[in-house]
Amino acid sequence: AGAAAAFGESLRSIRFGAPAIPVIANTTGGAYPGQVDEARSLLAQQLANPVRFDAVVEELFRLGARTFVE
Between 2-11 and 36-45, two packed helices, what is the crossing angle to 10 degrees? Predict the structure, then answer.
């Protein structure tokens, strides 16, 4: 959790913009929120949470992806 907080602090210096295409978070299996502070928080929390690879692949498939390379 300490690493996530430190990473979150460092993300404040990075300029975020709205994604042109959906960017899927590996801890939720859903798209990153459009609100910048929420997106930064979710990105930082990924350091301390399990990856939900199956949910990510299912969401990408739902969005039209058919080729996956790990």
Answer: 150
> What are the phi and psi torsion angles at 10 (to 5°)?
-65, -30
**H-type alpha helices, the chain:** 2-11, 36-45, 53-62
Contact 47, 7 (CB under 8 A): yes
Task: Please tell me the pTM assigned to this model.
Answer: 0.82
Alpha-carbon distance 45 to 50, whole Å?
A: 10
CA-to-CA distance for 45 and 4, rounded, in angstroms?
Answer: 5
Which residue reads 């990408």 in tokens? 60
pLDDT tens across 7-63, in order? 999 999 999 888 889 999 999 999 999 899 999 999 999 999 999 999 999 999 999
DSSP state of 33: P
